Amino acid sequence: QVQLVESGGGLVQPGGSLRLSCAASGSIFSVNAMGWYRQAPGNQRELVATITSDGRTNYGDSVKGRFTIYRDNVKHTVYLQMNSLKPEDTAVYYCNADVVRRTFVYSGTENYWGQGTQVTVSS
Predict the structure, then answer these.
(1) Sign of CA dihedral 59, 60, 66, 68
(2) Is 44 exposed, middle or buried (0-12, 13-18, 19+ CB in 10 A)?
(3) Separation between Cα atoms, residue 51 and residue 56, nearest integer Å
(4) How far apart are CA 47 and CA 60, in angstroms?
(5) Cα–Cα dist 111/5, whole Å
(6) Torsion of CA 77, 83, 86, 89, to 10 degrees
(7) CA 81 to CA 67: how far, in whole Å?
(8) Alpha-carbon torsion angle 121, 49, 39, 14, nearest 10
(9) pLDDT at residue number 1
(10) Structural contact between residues 21 and 88, judged by C-beta atoms closer than 8 angstroms
């Protein structure tokens, strides 16, 4: 009933920039925390950044000062601006969201993942 659709990945040279977007759609009452995680081949999925509905942010140590997360609460969309990209940023980036759903018979918060978007940093 809820989909997260990511876009904006691709190939970029070291030092370049990319912006990822993730839009939540479907049966949504509101969206609490949203975030980005990434997974490189052979590695575990790791935190990139999260943002609460009132704008509080948290970043992984490896991206602090280079990446910025922000969101549009009206559009249920989260963005990740990535600057000064390094080859070690190469990974599949996944969007995550805590979605509040309410119907006549149901009320609850559910966690969703996007399908992932590839980011490759290479010369």
Answers:
(1) negative
(2) exposed
(3) 5
(4) 6
(5) 14
(6) -10
(7) 6
(8) 10
(9) 84
(10) no
As a whole number of angstroms, the distance between CA 12 and CA 87 comes to: 9
Say how many C-beta atoms besides its own lie within 10 A of residue 66's C-beta: 15
Q: pLDDT, tens digit, for every residue of 7-47?
A: 999 999 999 999 999 999 999 999 999 999 999 999 999 99
Quick check: 90 and 119 in contact, CB under 8 A? yes
CA 83 to chain CA centroid, Å, is 15
**Percent composition of the chain: helix, strand, coil (DSSP 3-state, to 5):** 5, 60, 35
CA distance 119 to 48: 13
The two structure tokens encoding residue 34: 């949203």
List all residues 6 or more positions away from 89 whose beta carbon is below 8 Å from its beta carbon. 38, 63, 82, 119, 121
